[in-house]
Amino acid sequence: MRKHSLMIIDDNEDDRYLLKRLIKKAKIKSKIFEAENGQVALDFFTNTEGNLAEFPDTFPPLLIFLDINMPIMDGFEFLENFRKLKSQRENLKAVIFAMFTSSERKEDLERAQSYKFVQGFITKGSLTVERLRETIMEKFPEIEFEE
Questions:
Q1: Peptide bond into 61 cis (omega under 30)
Q2: What is the CATH number of the domain that holds 11?
């Protein structure tokens, strides 16, 4: 049976930690993958065979929280690369993104919305346990919550 997983792509370790805590407080039953920049995440997604062998029930993650401003490969560079990869890999078709960023720029919001698979734009600091639960329940009603 397929289990659901999430991924956090953010260069800030504190932000990843805080988001993981919110996920746990929201009682979302899910494996959480992490990457510290877009390149690490892209490498993770291109290693399909290895990840399917290591994580057969949880790869690929279905919801990805993506920061915009990161070194090496930022969020938008990652989205461009992921769009190409997604068109080549059937198992990535259902993956969706929620931007998780400190940016409040209208240009960033509009740019993120230009990708069909980006379904949310969350400003860091504004995410609450309740909002996280609502987002997960709306986008992935099949994801289980702990009692």
A1: no
A2: 3.40.50.2300
